[in-house]
């Protein structure tokens, strides 16, 4: 393994650990996840690791269904959290704008970035690098975690973003870059 | 096969009477408006104003979240055939999560009635077979008033998740538009749940 690859693997591991810590601080009772290779370390922690204890963790086939189920859980007073990749943002816009947003239902999503430096898919950037523009156009509030934010603050920023979704009664996304950059 | 004789408004009135204290989540369009016309505005009933294709998914979240709570013994979703097909992946998710309190009524008129009656693909689908193959606890078709009464009694007690496909005519009753602020709808529903929790 080259030094550069080792650096990137270490980055993925340390950033994934920070995301896990942030989610654990929120202590959700339900975690809904979509398929993602960059999220493997995070998902492993919650699907088969210690993060599975005491909570229900399950896969969603589509982002729109994930938002719908999450909103239903929120409506009845649960603490759900949804984890997915940014290339799925297009799938959830209609449900987001027709249910949790206008019904003032808080909802929190961890959204991992794809399509940037280190990307191995030749196409995914066409949707992923427009993620901010898409959610901006939809009026969805989001925050970002990447190299600009020191890693030691990631967990608390994730927790603060979740709280912000309660405070402002609306969906909030945290865009996290696990691949470097 | 019996001819279709059930009208949506009559079916809705029976569901309302059968589940007066259960959370009921209604699909959009004429279904919601006819329920409001038949039953009036009820605190236990929440209307999905426009999230077509996701009524069962939202109700699924509610059912999973309410499992084990007193007023969560039954969570009712009232869906249409066209909307269910739009979000059909939820059939597998319901079977996977298997909430024992979820009952889904699919009112099947075979068309997108609210937009002019364009046909859906439902006539070539066996929703009950899909549900059972996906792990639901029970599913049945309803074509007559007697079958509807039996299904309502069954869905009150049998362990879920349950699917009841009710074949209905395309008859509609006159209704007003429903123009309530969705934020108020959600808050009213939450406060009803909180009151039920406290009582």
Explain what the structure shows:
The complex is a heterodimer of chains A (181) and B (199). With 181 residues, chain A is of the alpha/beta class. In chain A, 45% of the residues lie in helices and 17% in strands. Chain A contains seven helices and six strands. Chain A has helices at 3-26, 40-47, 63-75, 89-98, 125-128, 131-137, 154-168, and strands at 30-33, 56-59, 80-85, 107-112, 141-145, 171-176. Chain A has a six-stranded parallel sheet with strand order 2-1-3-4-6-5, sandwiched between helices. Chain B has helices at residues 8-18, 30-39, 55-66, 81-86, 90-97, 127-133, 145-157, 182-198; strands at 24-26, 45-47, 75-80, 102-108, 111-112, 118-119, 138-142, 162-167. Chain B has one domain (8-198): Thiamin diphosphate (ThDP)-binding fold, Pyr/PP domains (Rossmann fold). In chain B, the strands form two sheets. Chain B has a six-stranded parallel sheet with strand order 2-1-3-4-8-7, sandwiched between helices. The radius of gyration of chain B is 15 Å and the shape is globular. The model of chain B has no long low-confidence stretch (mean pLDDT 95). The A-B interface holds A 30, 56, 58, 60-62, 64-65, 67-78, 80, 94-95, 98-99, 102-105, 169 and B 23, 25, 46, 48-54, 57-66, 72, 87, 89-90, 92-93, 96-97, 182-183, 185-187, 189-190, 193-194, 197.
Give a quick rundown of the structure:
The complex is a heterodimer of chains A (about 180) and B (about 200). Chain A is α/β, with parallel strands linked by helices and about 180 residues long. In chain A, about 45% of the residues lie in helices and about 15% in strands.
Keywords:
heterodimer, A: 181 residues, alpha/beta, Rossmann fold, six-stranded parallel beta sheet, 7 helices, 45% helix, globular, B: 199 residues, two-stranded antiparallel sheet, 42% helix, 17% strand
